[in-house]
Amino acid sequence: MASFDIPTIDFSPLFSTDENNQEKKQAMEQIGEACVNYGFFQITSHGIPLELLSRTMDMYETFFACSDEEKLSLPHNYMKSKQNSAETWEHLVFNFSSSGFDFCPDNPPHFKQVLEEMASHFTKLGVLLEGIISECLGLPPDFLANYKSDRSPNSLMGLHYFPATEDENTGKPAHEDPGCFTIVYQDELGGLQVQKDDQWIPIAPCKDKLVVNIGDVIQLLGWLVATLFILAGVYVLLLRRFTMLVRKFSSSVPSSSRRVVPSSPKKAIPTSPKMIVQLLTEVWITVMNV
């Protein structure tokens, strides 16, 4: 397997409100380059307490250890792969807004309070990333926020991939994320892989790092902006997958309004002509008024 590391970026300078801060400018340039060249990057000093990340993972694990009867009693938040499916997983998804979560199970206790605290941190981080990526694209800082404000709610998703058998190691197939970006926190087992230059590269889990991967919307925006000669680089979307390790528990927590869907291993942007026209129109109007 190829030797490859996705860029790791110190996020702390980006909290500065000083636009002349050289470290902030350098960090933004690093994010722009990572989006263009990799489609993935890791961030440290992101402002989310490690104790909260650990507590959230523990609560998800406790929930996933409950009986199927208890988990399936949830109205719509819980999903599980079909019994005969090659993929073996279960998801617990929460959509949230300023009014809080739509629904939360009673077990484990205090789950809702922990998730609300986590959602607050991830929302702030997501808003900051939206502004940074918008600027890296040569667009106003509020472009992405305005684009997605009325299109989809934010969500927090716990993903549990079941242990593989000795002779089966399929994991989750190659897929792309359809939204703007996903923020992922892996447990100590890991399993996340990204594709670069036709090689699948594992991303080692690290308790103080978050993984950010660029979704279809950003890739499409990069292409549209480049087409309009505002930005020379095109943001790339790397396929990713999860490998399954034998007899181990593995989970991760994507966030900031993104869901994970399976896709063909072949490179393709699953966006509709209508979406392309909408984005092209919004970019064109924005550019003409800059």
Automatic annotation (TrEMBL):
Alphabetical keyword list: Iron, Membrane, Metal-binding, Oxidoreductase, Transmembrane, Transmembrane helix, Vitamin C
Keyword Nucleus included in the entry's annotation: no
GO biological process: coumarin biosynthetic process; response to molecule of fungal origin
Keyword Zinc: no
Membrane-spanning intervals of the chain: 220-239
The Fe2OG dioxygenase domain, residue ranges: 152-287
Xref: InterPro entries: DIOX_N (IPR026992), IPNS-like_FE2OG_OXY (IPR044861), IPNS-like_sf (IPR027443), Oxoglu/Fe-dep_dioxygenase_dom (IPR005123)
GO molecular function: 2-oxoglutarate-dependent dioxygenase activity; L-ascorbic acid binding; metal ion binding
Family: Belongs to the iron/ascorbate-dependent oxidoreductase family.
Protein name in the entry: Fe2OG dioxygenase domain-containing protein
